[in-house]
Amino acid sequence: MVTIAGNDSDGSAGGPADLHTFFARDTYGMMILTAAVAGNSYGIQEQRTMPLDFITQQFTSIADDFEIRAAKTGMLADRAIIHNVVENLNRVSFGDLVVDPVISTKHGATLLEMDAIKAVQTELLPLATITTPNIYEGELLADMSIDSPDDMEVAARKIQSFGAKNVLLKGRHADAKQLEVTDLLLLENGETHWLTEPYVDTTHINGTGDTLSSVIVAELAKGQSILEAVKLAKTLTYQAIAETIEVGHQFGPINIWAAQDKA
Question: Where is the Pyridoxamine kinase/Phosphomethylpyrimidine kinase domain (predicted)?
């Protein structure tokens, strides 16, 4: 498998979290670097994007040597990189594609400019076997507020209309008072599945979306169905959050080891 993503220097998210997860699921992972972030558990201090010709060369180098069964996208940073990645994905054969949009944080901070969000909608999502937006990304992609389960279903269908075959719309992480987190899986055939796990009140949640989408990639590469891959990803990500590890002083990573010996 290959992750097309940015590098977080503290290893908690982005490409490092993807590669940790691939390893935990007994699969071999590669990485196409799109950006690099200087950061730690306190936050991000600086970032750089990769030159477009270098991104293209990474695609070529991997495609010329390896058989890739599945791929995922993570941080693509801006419209130019999104367009470059889409061009290269159309040029190579990397199997199933999981699109983790990386438009907004799980707390609602927007990470992409509007023209880049449009590129996700019109260029990237049509290539997706499945996309995994959080609730805030779902609102931006569907151009609507999401305040209820009915809203989630409407938004998921709008996102699917852009061309993504399957949509996993992740539920809201509100505050310590909530008891559960419920995600909605909309399948290509129109079926819906609601997936619920307990809410965990912790600041160690860096890399949650990366791990969830990476488990899906790994399981698709093994030949699992979308439904089974997503169910397992939801369970293992919950376990990785619940079984906390103490790394960093503030917003630490989830425990990807918890995904290694389960299921």
Answer: 8-255
